[in-house]
Amino acid sequence: MSTRNTYHDAVVALNSLQSGSEAIKARKLAGNKIDRAVVQEMNEWPSDFNCLNIVHVAGTKGKGSTCTFVSSILSCYQRLHGVPKKIALYTSPHLIAVRERIQIDGEPISEDQFTKYFFEVWNRLEKSALEEGHEPTRKPAYFRFLTLMSFHVFIREGVDIAIYEVGVGGERDSTNIIERPIATGITSLGIDHVGALGDTIESIAWHKAGIFKFSSPAFTVDQYPAAMGVLEERAKEKNVELIKVGIHPNITSVNLKSTANFQKKNASLAIYLAGTALTALGIQLPDLRETLPDGFIQGLENAVCRGRLESNSEGPTTWYLDGAHTLDSLTVAVLLTFHGMYVLSSDVVGHKKVSYALIFNQQSRPEVLSLLRALHDSLGNASDGSMYAFDHVVFCTNVTWKDKGYNDDLVNRNTDPAIVKDMTVQKELAAMWKTLDAHAKTHVLGSVEEAVDFARDLGKEIGRAKVFVTGSLHLVGGVLAVQQGKPFS
């Protein structure tokens, strides 16, 4: 009697496609694009994906938020008018469960759906490999497999609009198998993933513009002049109309979760991407340059970007979480999150002293020390001239549990396990922070669980603790997973 595959089986098999740190470095340089032959092994063709009416979004900052805004606008329009019938979203990384990457109508697919479709793709690839005389264990790497699986899921589920967030870059990204998107969008550009994309804004813009496709309209927000020049040049090469989107004149009347200028840019870009998608389905809309239909307003207001400007409380401990992991995004996170939570440590709130803690990690970026310095430099000064400061700074790995290791969904083989075990990066970060702020107490911990326990204990001991978690979406996801799996008591 055959044993039924479980969700756990699917996640374990998926994790086996993570190649290790050295292979990851090599693949980033070579690109992560899906080979057309792999698609055809599924008895599908890239042209089959055109029925999904894909909105494709690249960028350095804000592409995940923009995709979330587009999905939320379309979902609200669906509730009000009955169309589109099914809306899909493919995004990365996930925070807690890998299913979060593949969503339909605003919800991650279920564990049963994930398991079913995962093994349909897995088994089909093995069968094709055997038929062609190849080793059946030969499969696409983790992200490429999930991208291929997402197309399979969305086609089988009858999706009529799909929003795809690029993983890294654009030109060589696995999502760029898409042949005819109904619209493409480029969010704000900056220096990131230099090993794969180059260390100039021009090189990065070139890669991002790789998602432009012949005759598909493209939209972008304001960019550095050098970046905009490259986007315009590539649009001309591909015979693409590139439309520059400013902040929408009516955005001030929309109650966004964040009123930061960058989020207004993301929301404005999403308005035009969603409008183009609906128009492609034959839906008549008013001129979006002048007005916003109710579905658009509600969609923008209802959009929730988990792990970004997020907060929650557990007794005396209040958590502020933002997965910022670039120089620019860390500066913004400090400005919007840390400054908003800060009360001078000498103050007393409700007769309880407030202690401030930072939990930070960024395991995979070579510029991590620069990121930490940027975070420190962004703290600024209080109104009395004193330096804003943390009482405690915790550097931990992304390993979820002290004794059990990673959650299945959070296994990460992209970093050298020896470096993680020895906490090499964490020790370097702690040493740097001591040179930046000799008054803070630094702590190096081996797991997210230990960091969460430390912060919880701090709240109980002091009376009130405010904890800022940043540097990585993987870290933020680990904190949320520990909060769910090990309740405060």
TrEMBL record:
Major subcellular location class: cytoplasm
Location(s) in or outside the cell: Cytoplasm; Mitochondrion inner membrane; Mitochondrion matrix
Record field: catalytic activity: (6S)-5,6,7,8-tetrahydrofolyl-(gamma-L-Glu)(n) + L-glutamate + ATP = (6S)-5,6,7,8-tetrahydrofolyl-(gamma-L-Glu)(n+1) + ADP + phosphate + H(+)
Cofactor(s), names only, from the UniProt record: a monovalent cation
UniProt cofactor note: A monovalent cation.
EC number: 6.3.2.17
Keyword Membrane: yes
Keywords: ATP-binding, Cytoplasm, Ligase, Magnesium, Membrane, Metal-binding, Mitochondrion, Mitochondrion inner membrane, Nucleotide-binding, One-carbon metabolism
Pathways involved: Cofactor biosynthesis; tetrahydrofolylpolyglutamate biosynthesis
Database matches in PROSITE patterns: FOLYLPOLYGLU_SYNT_1, FOLYLPOLYGLU_SYNT_2
Annotated transmembrane regions: none
Coiled-coil positions: none
MF-aspect GO terms: tetrahydrofolylpolyglutamate synthase activity
The family this protein is said to belong to: Belongs to the folylpolyglutamate synthase family.
Functional summary from the UniProt entry: Catalyzes conversion of folates to polyglutamate derivatives allowing concentration of folate compounds in the cell and the intracellular retention of these cofactors, which are important substrates for most of the folate-dependent enzymes that are involved in one-carbon transfer reactions involved in purine, pyrimidine and amino acid synthesis.
Protein name listed in UniProt: Folylpolyglutamate synthase
Organism, as annotated: Discina gigas
Gene name linked to the record: MET7_2
